[in-house]
Design brief:
By secondary structure, the protein is mainly alpha-helical. 56% of the residues lie in helices and 5% in strands.
Length: 443
């Protein structure tokens, strides 16, 4: 068997590696990226708009401060208004993404009630987590549960807008419950006491998740910051890998559970969903070498070693820095930094927060100098640190991303169904030569 696997590896590398010259000659957009790194336009959406460039007088793209819009509304203004109300905003953002309109008080009340009614898991749904799904890897478990939920739906293959909306609302509401329960069942399997508390109808999505995870009513400041994290991760345009995956699968006529499970599968990849975990590991490594957190020379020396492949995981990557679209800034990172400072004071971790700020600034300078383009911290640089202070285990960082992003995935699924065109991009053959067939006995 080992010889067979080795043979497959050798032949795969020999035949499937395409030279840069061939790629350039055929003008192939690998990764659906243009030569300047921008994404190939593959669709149109009313949901999310991500801005990292603007056009100058000559019509050329130039880097600019990052902006993020949900259904045409600036995320900074949405967050600011929610903050001024001293409340929770994730449900309101979900409504906005699904409908493209901000709810009035009556509509928001009805929507929040509908979410609260859908949040608990019934006996059959709980049995999937308790008896059928292996829970050690939280993303694997989440993927399995969501795909199994089709069995709990009397009309799993509904494709009409109301039917799909019903399924999407159910998944958005239940996802925090599934993530919390799945984690606590995995602890139970490893010898801990079982904790599966029912969500409370009077509490917000963020409060309920923290409550179901820990079994205690959360502090309001902590819950509001977690609500902010969910808002910032709820949507990011149609071109990010997981949302594009959901749209691609939806375009084939697949049902809601398969489409959302595909998004979860995409997010499980380390190039998309695991960046905040990688930041945490990098910062842990940094602390072993930089004892004085105010020593900026030592921080720069360490980060230089990281870039040159001598430190951390030796990949040459500073995690949490840079973005496929944003250039001068990631607005989500700026918003999270602004709102997290007071929380870190409350937790007695302001010094560590200031260390993150120093690494952010120094790493941005270092990478920008080396690459000749602006490179700034993205939202993942800070989110893992915030989750750690909340007592959330690292294994849940990516599932939390999924339970927030399911709002955007659902909105894009509905939009894709309305647009109704199956995705079928073209792939050019590496060679147009026809191989000469040799009989088996002569090979």
């Amino acid at each position: 068997m080992d010889n067979v696997l080795q043979k497959i590896e050798e032949l795969t590398l020999a035949h499937d590696t395409i030279s840069p010259e061939v790629i350039k000659a055929k003008n192939v957009k690998l990764g659906l990226r243009n030569a300047d790194g921008t994404g190939v336009v593959a669709g149109i959406t009313t949901k999310g708009r991500v801005v990292g460039y603007k056009k100058n007088a000559e019509g050329n793209k130039v880097p600019t401060e990052g902006k993020l819009y949900y259904s045409g509304y600036d995320i900074e203004k949405l967050v600011e208004e929610i903050h001024l109300r001293n409340g929770f905003g994730y449900d309101e953002i979900v409504y906005l993404l699904l409908t493209n309109e901000l709810p009035n008080e009556e509509d928001l009340g009805s929507f929040t009630d509908a979410m609260a009614k859908r949040r608990p898991l019934n006996k059959q749904e709980r049995s999937i987590i308790m008896g059928e799904v292996q829970n050690d890897n939280q993303m694997y478990g989440l993927h399995s549960v969501v795909s199994h939920l089709s069995r709990c739906d009397a009309h799993p293959d509904a494709i009409d807008i109301q039917g799909v909306s019903r399924q999407c609302l159910n998944l958005i509401a239940k996802m925090p419950t599934i993530v919390a329960y799945n984690y606590n069942v995995s602890r139970f399997r490893s010898g801990e006491d079982l904790r599966m508390v029912r969500p409370k109808a009077e509490m917000s999505t963020a409060e309920n998740f923290l409550y179901m995870l820990k079994g205690e009513i959360p502090d309001k400041i902590e819950a509001q910051l977690f609500d902010l994290c969910m808002i910032l991760h709820a949507e990011h345009g149609g071109g990010n890998n997981s949302t594009f995956t959901v749209r691609t699968v939806s375009s084939s006529g697949a049902n809601t559970y398969m489409a959302i499970a595909a998004g979860i599968a995409s997010l499980s990849g380390h190039l998309h969903g695991g960046a905040n975990e990688s930041v945490m590991k990098m910062m842990k490594d940094l602390k072993k070498y930089v004892k004085d957190w105010n020593d900026e020379k030592a921080i720069r020396a360490y980060l230089t070693d990281v870039v040159e492949g001598r430190a951390n995981d030796r990949t040459g990557k500073i995690y949490g820095l840079g973005h496929a679209v944003y250039t001068h800034s990631d607005p989500r990172a700026i918003i999270l930094m602004r709102h997290a400072r007071e929380f870190t004071k409350q937790k007695g971790s302001l010094d560590e927060f200031l260390l993150y700020e120093k690494v952010d600034r120094i790493a941005s300078e270092l990478l920008s100098e080396r690459k000749g383009v602006p490179i700034k911290a993205n939202v993942d640089f800070y989110s893992g640190f915030i989750y750690k202070l909340m007592g959330i285990p690292q294994s849940l960082f990516t599932p939390i991303f999924a339970m927030a992003r399911v709002a955007g995935w659902s909105a894009h699924r509905l939009e894709q169904i309305v647009q109704g065109k199956i995705m079928r991009p073209a792939y050019l053959a590496a060679s147009e030569d026809e191989n000469h067939y040799t009989k088996l006995i002569e090979r």
